[in-house]
């Protein structure tokens, strides 16, 4: 079988680096182009010395040229910009896997509410398939445009959706409290992200109206079968490079027990390669998913307050971004879903 | 004025080290004994090289001998053991400042529920004053036995008590989600605490029935003026040495606004030296309280879910343990409350 | 081609974990046994939750039983113990790849000098091939017993051997100053290794007579073609999980230039997959080799003191231990040398 | 006694923050002005929330206005700029304590060699006293202009000077290999300093011709009583916030023994408050000097190579910058040398 020819747009950030780490050892994919406006003309090793020897050079993002030689494009671009590239790529027949937030919301109104601008191509929102394979695998098999699930959303939706769908928890009063490593902020050169500011520092931010909130609510509502949900999502920055821990509090519905939760998870994820359900009462730990495409989930039930307490960890750059994009691509092109990811 | 003569019992852990750091430069206190069964006979510098030159040697914890030459005893002992020492010290007229959890709960039944043993001296529970100066300053002036507030409780009670007392938030459905540095586990030599297990790791633990839960609930209920409260308290271990961040979600009561929250905080803490209220909508950051006795508090109101969201940070070893003990001692002995702490 | 059947002895430490990380995705190898006295009977996921789902259970290290079903044994055992296992495994025809220090020194006298006991099987020292593929690839192809190069030695020998062999540097007055992440100490539960003791701490240790010293000197002397060498090797512990940086100072020989150094390195390593020579004057950085089997080398020449200054980084658990063992095994069994390692 | 009135120029970086941490609790000093072009008009808490409540506002660096109301000026400015301010301050009779490198070299030619520009006021080089109290205490008592010793130099000169002066080590062939925390780079917003680039990264830099090299050589030569020295100085960046470890290799002179080294150190530093000599053969550890003004020194003698190996640690922001400036100021104004520093 010939290899899937992949172009990576916006390859000079941390998601781009992680994509290259995965794709360069992917048995069925070949990187045919990596773009970076800033680094065009430079070998990949100038930006990422770890890839010295890889025969790759950053190029200008000339969509037509690149579209002519690739089957798949993975967009690791800032939101807003991703749409600009997606449109001509789709027209050229290239399958598009977008890591940005541009196509994740189904509602253009919600997009405007949270991003403060009109969505640049609202007609694409309905076409896009949400890139969370454990929830949308069938649709992904034939998708032209995949809106890869965000990092915080992946860590929030995977552990909650089956419980909401099984009515073991109530769709009201949910709180998601997350801690992310600093690569979650991208490769951003700004005072709050320099080492001495982050090390020995842990702090909440964006506690009201974070842009990942509507994405989480949308997918939780789909799972719960309700038109709308309102939750609290509270992200924190923690002094580590990678990974996210999400601790989620939900009101147990009548009849909810630890055993039932375990059964529902087993049914939902028992056959999944990239979801690991811990034995009851244990808590997930970021260190066990670092540099893997796995989501690890622990669950507990507090009789004192009748809350279901779920802990869920992912590597923000792998399952939360680049690994997930490759997993979606593998599905779309009929490859082994885990190719390149183990 | 002659100096307060202080004995530190159990001085070889992190709280002990922090006590020495503070007391050795305290203008009105003098360390007259430091005890450690394991290190008796060794100079302080054997355990803590940073105190090389300080003329202190660990001694056996012979209570009678030590009681005869000190005015105050600070107990940095494991819970259970603290009571054993407190009883004879109190009999000898020494003022006791206990950093353990032995005297924090008013209810012996709660103690048994969470610690699984009968309280060894339940009659002392009523006598003990809770060592949180911003809440109990007047009682502390005459206390013989001070049960210094715990680290997680300090970070949880300071930001919530005024809001509960002012009825700006409801006393139901409160969730406290905390992240602590690893010194919070004490100077414990155990696999989960070695560097490679903690670094790049963030995980919840004790999510149901943590021993700090009844202490937090007791003080929140006192503040709210209700007989009992049931909250969720979810601690996490984060890859840093010191400090705690507590992010707290509460249901706003009718009429609650950001302005009113600000006013209530101003009234409660405007004159406090060791509480810093941030401007509305900002979040606290552990790095700004590290190695200080300050509690920094940020507050926000989410109109989407009508939740008050408070972030609160302390240094677990200072305001969460040793600094607080010294603050209480300063009050008890009529010293400048901030002596040795700034 | 049938897969190489591999047994891992002493699989519950960090080198064991890294071996499993590599071998579980190795296309031509199959793990048939993992031993651990302490964890015998437990599934691998009890010790390493990241391997949940891998159908592996720790067993007692019964050599005969295990030898009967494996082609290769990788020993991740404490030194001293490794020999005990190696002897019967070799008798049973199993190829042995030892990660410990037991067979690295050619001289039993040196072993005794540094390990303070007689070598338990000095006759094996001559048989063992030193497991540093870039130096001993040909001998490795037929070796029965491979003494995988140590972590500090790998980072020291790779950058110096070609320069010594080409007489660009003098074999006298060499200083190797290294900094290692904390996994270098193994999964050791001891006070100096708990997080709060290591974080924000950097310190030298074993500055005189470290056990890796004779190994480094032996291989440098072989390269230089001199009977004996005496160097300084100064290790440090740094607050990170993985990797080693070795900074090496050597006296430039007459006629040594940056260009010649570059040429010698190109000749020695130009075709090596796992050695990356940086452009002249740049310094190596541990972050670019973390979780890879690569050794990155930078070089410089100080006209002020006529010293060649080389910086060299590896991942101590990969190229410094488990990755190197697998690389050696790949060579021995005629596999692609990089199988499982990229 | 009235307090020394201090102005801090360039107070918005890490050295400035550390100066404020020290000076705000200094019993005999008062901060009368803090300057920052960028933050002029803003309260100190805007830049450093930890100082909320301190009645300080950044002002424009108007030298004449500020000179009129202060006794001492501490310059935490970039090199080059410091001279511009020092000249008018000195004219106005203000004692100047410069933390930059502007006045540390006695030779304008060396300055030009390493800084690539002519020194802006070479006539001041002779006037400046080198701000390392343990070496120049007497001159500091009457100095008008103090060139506070640099961070790497302090950690290198204190352990070597007495040994060189006593001829226990040779003045040739010395290598200083140092590792610094990231605050050593200042509060610099640049890609190499963001958290994900520094964490889990250790790397050398500036291995040839670092600007601290001539300063170290100058002071070593003074101590050795030789006209010139040429050493190697190899700095590294380590993943921690504060502190420096310098490991120094020197050739032992004839008759050098551990005992003699110990005696020489005792004579040099036995009465020093801020130098701690460890027992022979132990190594210094940065964690024991963090946030203190202490330099900790360990020493060893390697009979194998006849090298004296010294390890030396300081907090780069305290003894390596701001603490040292305050120590110098205390000496100059006849205060307790440790005022504000313990």
From TrEMBL, chains A, B, C, D:
Task: Report the domain of life of the source organism.
Answer: Bacteria
Residues in the active site? 151
| Enzymatic reactions | N-acetyl-L-glutamate 5-semialdehyde + phosphate + NADP(+) = N-acetyl-L-glutamyl 5-phosphate + NADPH + H(+)
Q: Which UniProt keywords apply?
A: Amino-acid biosynthesis, Arginine biosynthesis, Cytoplasm, NADP, Oxidoreductase
Q: What class of enzyme is it?
A: oxidoreductase
**The keyword S-adenosyl-L-methionine is annotated on this UniProt entry:** no
Q: Note the InterPro entries from the entry.
A: AGPR, AGPR_dimerisation_dom, AGPR_type-1, NAD(P)-bd_dom_sf, Semialdehyde_DH_NAD-bd
What is this protein's gene name?
Answer: argC
Q: Where is the signal peptide?
A: none
The protein in question is named: N-acetyl-gamma-glutamyl-phosphate reductase
- Known SUPFAM superfamilies for this protein? Glyceraldehyde-3-phosphate dehydrogenase-like, C-terminal domain, NAD(P)-binding Rossmann-fold domains
